Amino acid sequence: MTINFKELHNELLFVPLGGSNEIGINVNLYHYEGKWLMVDCGSGFADDFLPGVDMVVADMDFIIQHKKDLVAIVLTHAHEDHLGAIQYFAKELNTPIYATNFTKNFLKIRLTENNLQKNVEIKEVKPGSKFDLGPFSIEMIGITHSAPEMQALMIRCGGGKVLHTGDWKFDDDPVVGPSSSKNLLKNCGDEGVDALVCDSTNVFNPGSSGSEGQLRKSLVDIIAGCPKLAVCTTFASNIARLDTLIYAGQKAGRKIVLTGRSMHRMLAAAQESGYLLNSANLFDEKDVSRFKREEVMVIATGCQGEPLAAIAKMAGGTHNNLKLSKGDTVIFSSKIIPGNDKKIFRMFNQLVKTGVEVITERDHFVHVSGHPGLDELKAMYKLVRPKTVVPVHGEASHIHEHAKFARKCGVPNAVEVENGSVLKIDATETKLIGKIKTGYLAVDGISLLPDSSAIFKYRRKMRESGIVVATLVFDKKGGFATKPAIDYPGCLNPADDSDIINDILSELMMIFSQGLNSKITRMKTDEIEQTVRSLIKRTLKSEIGKTPQIIVNIQYTS
């Protein structure tokens, strides 16, 4: 159904564009008095459905159409799935961005790398700040996560009150930054919260997410026990974990090396913001050869199996400065994100086959999540006492489970949203009233393409069945000026499939023989192309059961 937002001018609305069908790509919109507020603007990992693509972002067409009424973007924290899309839409949205010091510094580095630093207005706000944006009054509330200065947002307006948690956990020993401001959360509950828009990532995990401080003790022991080179990989944006790994490596008597561009990028942003100041004695990766292997610990990018990241290069033997050997240990201090598991397990196997010991969260205490388990969700409900819980930051199964759990815990109402849902929020009833069109864009090199683009259909076909490129050159009389040239990359092997290749060539020569010259001269180029394509397709389907991408080039001599 078509939604007339002019008729909803004075309603408080919530519209997720991303993050409510998946974990990642978090983009959330709030509407009141005809104005829009965006909370976060994130990216996500691509899966095998999009060959050649690493990152995916939400289609922003809806808010671009309303950009004159967009008052600002407020960032909850400095993780890619909450700010990684800004560089692609900064110019088009052309609106101020509000962020704390660390988040600002990280975003500035990203924008500078893309020559966008002059195109984006970043307004720094202190953690715990209160400020007004159009009809919205924003209060930031410090809450623990794996990134410094994570801020939940209490959003107040004439239409109602919403607590937007962003990513969070309750950790009494968080290592980096203070513990969650439970007293402020309780104050919000005392005031009254119409809707709690809440993280669903770990809704299937009983208990709590665990403490970074407890993990620190475990990693010290594990790293100290590595017989040779120790390599730890995690998200570069997990500053708490980066701090823990540096501390653990130093306690184990290791010389610490960072590898991977995003590691150095995050370190620079952290130190500029006053974090990770204990990492002054890091060593350059080019100097590793000066030390014994058992004296070194490497912290590397690539915990999700990204093919161009540092740990992938080390596993494949293509890293310029760091080589793995039998007896080395690689520690994956991270969660295996759904959708990335195939890439990650492929890397595990590659490492094991080379004699490297692999340690993961499945068999050792090497990771704690930055997201709430069931005990923490229950504690949040008790503090905030919302009238409605709106689960986000999850796939459909996470959101459904979270809604059930909230009702079980006594929350009066829980609404299951998906990307594009239009949710009307007020003190008496919060309900879905419609849906807008949403989608995804693939970051393909320096271009943004719809994930439905025919380009990706062709790439999938080439990946699965290969490609055939046929070039036919005709003379003025309609005969072949030279023998047809046909290549079969990823489809046929000339050494093993010569019979099939010769059959195709023979049939082509017969179809376009001298006896048919008069007919050929009357055929249009597209008719010739279709004839060649049909022949190749029919033969390959019959002989090998494959239908590759077929490209036919027709040329004529002058």
Please give a structural write-up.
It is built from 16 helices and 27 strands. The protein has 558 residues and is of the alpha/beta class. It has an 8-stranded mixed beta sheet. A 7-stranded mixed beta sheet has the order 9-10-11-12-13-19-20. It has a 5-stranded parallel beta sheet with strand order 15-16-14-17-18, sandwiched between helices. Strand 2 and strand 3 (35-41) form a beta hairpin. Helix 4 crosses helix 8, helix 5 (182-191) crosses helix 11 and helix 14 (498-511) runs antiparallel to helix 16.
Keywords for this entry:
558 residues, alpha/beta, eight-stranded mixed sheet, 16 helices, globular
Quick take:
With 558 residues, the chain is α/β, with parallel strands linked by helices. Helices cover 31% and strands 24% of the residues.
